[in-house]
Amino acid sequence: MTVSEQPPPPKEDENDELDALDALEKEASEFNKDAEIDRILKAFKLDAYAVLNLQPGIPDAQIKIQYRKLSLLIHPDKTSNPLAPSAFDRLKKAQTELQDPKQRTHLDECISDARMLLIRERKLTTDSPEVKEPDSEFLAAWRKKTVEVLVDAEARRRKQMKAQLQEEGREQRKVDEEVEVRKRRREHEVKWEETRESRIGSWRDFQKGAAAGKEGEGGKKKKKLKVLG
What we know:
Number of helices: 8
Strand content: under 5%
Order of helices and strands: HHHHHHHH
Distance between the termini: 169 Å
Shape: elongated
Radius of gyration: 43 Å
Helix content: over 70%
Largest sheet: none
């Protein structure tokens, strides 16, 4: 293409339109970021699946993909939203919990328990159509029941931890008391040893004094008592 055949530069109106489109895309992107940050912070934080917007039973690979996608979207360096750091931390915590087999198993068990409790409350069975093909109402009730089960489990965990800390505190106080008794005993033994020579010297002085007293008594003549009458 020769110089004469090159396309003409965009007109001023076209530049304005491109700027407007860029501004709209940026605004839409910021809106999506703000909406996701708001969703994460409103999600029940004890349910890592809810924070990551995932369904239970999802493969580990999908958890990593979802976390990467959301973390890039709401990263504090990529948005001016002041709540981005809090949402990012919560997102990271949720991903860490789902990567921990013990924590994920506990969460899966709570979700399963919530489902069974809901089935019993509604006098259904696992073969009931509402359970096999749950509608939005059943799923919403299941999520609500999951929150109750997770809150109850967390309350029990905190109670057990408190009792454990109290027991550990009692054991520590007992150990501290035993250490203090041994310390006082050692200090007493040290002082007793330090004063040993002084005690021996005092005993020797006492013995000398006693011996001198006996000698003094032996050298004195006894006076005869006069008989009256």
